[in-house]
Amino acid sequence: MIRVSLGRPFALLAGALLLGGCSALSQPEAVDTYLLPGGRFAVAAATPGDDSSLRVTRPKAAGGLEGNRIAVLPQPDRLSFYKGARWSDAAPVLLRDRLIEALRAGGGIARLSSDDDNLRAERELGGNLRAFQSEYQAGQPQVLIRFDAQLIDTRSRAILASRRFEVSQAVQGSAVPEVVDAFGRASDDLARQVSGWLLQQPR
Prior knowledge:
With 203 residues, this protein is of the alpha/beta class. Helix content is 29%, strand content 35%.
């Protein structure tokens, strides 16, 4: 009598199915990466004789705002994130770079740098990013950016000036690309306000 053992083939088949199932379950989520739109500012002429220097640092951020996920508050005090969507960089970096673009276009500061450059500067613009998210008001999303700016003397580390800036921008729709577009408009508006305020400060 010939005995046929089916245990090993079945074990191999089960293992293959298990591996196939794990492979299907471990497929990475499809993620769309978004650049912050906008950043087109009217270029002003440089101030004659201006030799000021300013370093713009990435603002501090708490909670889920320090990363590159796109934040949304579907309900008050409930922070969530858009699925399958990311910023091209962390939100504080996006705001810092947008501020530099606005200041460079403003032409009132001769020497601009960021904290990535590690260059000396007479003054430093930093602060805290309190909000960089979309929120639902009466069922409609709107983008909110809140930035507590601080202008600091780099030698004494004294605060020369500070001010809170807050901008809201309605979203023309509810899809992620429309939300991203509203972020761009709100960032441009806030950057213009910060640039105008900064250029009014004594040197």
